[in-house]
Amino acid sequence: MLKILNATAMLILWGAACQLFAAEQRPPNVIIILADDMGYGDAGCYGSETLKTPHLDRLAAEGMRFTDFHSSGAVCSPTRAGLMTGRYQQRAGIPGVVFADPKRNRHHGLQTTEIVLPKLLRQAGYATALFGKWHLGYRKQFNPIHHGFDRFRGFVSGNVDYISHIDGTGVADWWHDDQLTPEEGYTTRLINRNAVEFIEQHRDRPFFLYLAHEAVHSPYQAADDVPVRAVGRKRIPGTARRDIARAYQQMMTEMDNGIGEVLNTLQRLELDRETLVFFFSDNGPTKNGSNGGLRGFKGSLWEGGHRVPAVARWTGHIPPGTVNGTTCISLDLMPTILAIADVEVPEGHHLDGADLSSVLAGEENRLTRPLFWSYRNSSAMRDGNWKLIVDRNNADPQLFNLADDPQEETNLADQQPARVEAMLKSLAAWKADVLSGATKQPER
Fold first, then answer.
1. Does 202 qualify as catalytic in the annotation?
2. Which parts of the sequence belong to the Sulfatase N-terminal domain (predicted)?
């Protein structure tokens, strides 16, 4: 009998050891939380004295806050295309906004031939979901479920009425996967509720959750406000204009509360050490938000248009309370996530982003690569601390040393003609490269 008991005990211990080993070998969960039109100065941890963001501040206190992180685009769609592909969005044929207006480019979208992050993760065994804003194609063929997402709840346009879920052309826009499915509720709360449910349902397997908030994009609506759009109406006649400052604060609060719900869910399910949470904004703010004293706003290639708040937390892996000044871009997320998930990039496929694993680990890592931006008739290049801007409103290139002049106030182009010439050549070469072989969008 004693031998039987000893054998049984050994089997139990062996089973427990196997479970522990399996847990240690399990790929990490990944949650990307994307704010919309949130400025560099729109959070407490980035110096805001008017907007209270205790949960985002907690994320920063428990992880890493970036001070030189950039979106790859100055507006919504391009950054999202870059995030999904890990490549400059020009390569995917999405250099600008995919508009809801059928007279413009509503027929464009992210082609299913693109190699995208969620598809690679799903092939590696991850459960995948997107809750919130897509903005990479209105047609069903561009729907997120055709890009590697198991589940999609949200809207495909650039923005919807937070209460009625009507887009800017008066069209209903709330989807369950690729089916238009009305659902009552304030947009931010629906996104958060779906996120928590997904985490709970997939606690026992690796998951990738893309939580794409609408906040703080217009229309400016708090949860208790009435709809301003209806089917067939871009704006309901007689709807009073909002107090934007009040609504903006409440919209930020709702999004921040959702971040708190996600963090609390991870803690309750003991998934903190198994989950990388990465928060950032898709571009700079409108003039209703704060650019943190930087120059420019959304739509511009000044720092205020693309330097954005970014915070990462992975308990036990990222040193808590750290502030990192490495120059990073949203294109870096795909190669970073694939690296920590031990998923290989398909042979022969090149990503434009860099793996930030060592940066997240707190190791010194100075990335010596140039970065580029292009939107409408403006272009910009970053080379170390030097930034070159060729702005549509100024025919002459402008050069700034961001180490001494983050506000881009002192143009040093006349003092650095050789540097300007070299950067202009690099910028021209980059444009030729990203446009060569770029994905073609369908004809109207």
1. no
2. 28-343
